């Protein structure tokens, strides 16, 4: 039963990610007309990570979660994930957040193994992958090295940062599209 639910959501997520990919593609104003279709140009529209065509580069992208917003209370990270996707296998997520001080609250990064506990922000069923201080400086790095859905949230205040604070998002990394050789 649980696995049925999970696979249904797995598919849903996949569709969302795929759809958003095409939304990004279609939203581009200068969508090429089919008469002078340029495949190189077309493929370059996948993702918006400014990939360089670099066959020797095995290392993957570092993606700062939230972009210039970093990892803080009250920013819509689900929205961020949709707008900045798709993400690819071996991409590295970087969570950046300051250490707590007298005037600021701590943050952390938790990972859920199930969609259900992620949806409920059931932090007790999640695993802490970064504590209060690991987001400092260069940030906490996490490599998306498996082809599976990933569910992240902040773990603070028993789910409050996850629920009300919107510090939660899901990602299904994709295989990199075939890349035609550069002209
Ligand atoms: C196709 O697009 C690429 C990248 O924008 C460009 O470098 C190339 O010259 C284009 N090829 C043709 C035939 O227009
Ligand atoms: C390709 O990647 C390699 C290894 O990271 C790097 O040394 C090289 O400068 C890159 N080339 C280009 C054109 O970006
Ligand atoms: C956050 O963004 C998602 C996806 O765009 C949207 O569905 C959701 O309503 C937003 N949440 C809030 C509280 O605005
Ligand atoms: C991801 O990185 C691992 C370890 O470097 C490598 O074995 C694997 O082939 C990579 N996967 C992809 C899809 O690039
Ligand atoms: C506490 O942290 C916040 C957020 O990182 C920062 O803006 C503020 O200057 C810090 N305050 C002190 C007293 O260090
Ligand atoms: C957080 O984790 C780092 C690295 O594992 C460790 O050095 C540090 O003591 C931890 N900090 C707290 C507050 O637990
Ligand atoms: Cu938080």
UniProtKB/TrEMBL annotation:
Instruction: Please name the GO terms that the record assigns under molecular function.
Output: electron transfer activity
Leader peptide range in chain numbering: 1-27
The UniProt record lists the keyword Cell membrane: no
InterPro entries in alphabetical order: Cupredoxin, Phytocyanin_dom
Quote the PROSITE patterns the UniProt record gives: PHYTOCYANIN
Taxonomically, the superkingdom here is: Eukaryota
Q: Which UniProt keywords apply?
A: Signal
Residue ranges constituting the Phytocyanin domain according to the UniProt record: 61-175
Q: Does the keyword Lipid metabolism apply?
A: no
Sorted alphabetically, which PANTHER family does this protein's record hold?
GLYCINE-RICH PROTEIN-LIKE (PTHR34052), OS06G0216700 PROTEIN (PTHR34052:SF1)
Q: What is this protein called?
A: Phytocyanin domain-containing protein
What species was this sequence derived from? Pisum sativum
């Amino acid at each position: 039963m649980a696995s049925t639910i999970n696979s249904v959501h797995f598919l849903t997520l996949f569709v969302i990610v795929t759809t958003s990919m095409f939304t990004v593609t279609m939203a581009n104003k200068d969508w090429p007309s089919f008469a002078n279709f340029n495949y190189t140009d077309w493929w370059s529209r996948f993702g918006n990570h400014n990939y360089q065509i670099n066959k020797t580069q095995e290392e993957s992208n570092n993606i700062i979660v939230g972009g210039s917003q970093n990892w803080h209370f009250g920013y819509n990270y689900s929205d961020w994930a949709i707008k900045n996707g798709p993400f690819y296998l071996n991409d590295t997520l970087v969570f950046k957040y300051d250490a707590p001080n007298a005037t600021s609250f701590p943050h952390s990064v938790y990972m859920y193994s199930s969609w259900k506990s992620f949806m409920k922000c059931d932090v007790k069923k999640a695993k802490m992958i970064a504590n209060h201080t690991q987001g400092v400086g260069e940030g906490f790095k996490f490599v998306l090295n498996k082809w599976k859905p990933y569910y992240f949230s902040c773990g603070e205040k028993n789910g409050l940062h996850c629920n009300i604070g919107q510090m939660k998002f899901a990602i299904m990394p994709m295989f990199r599209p075939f890349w035609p050789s550069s002209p």
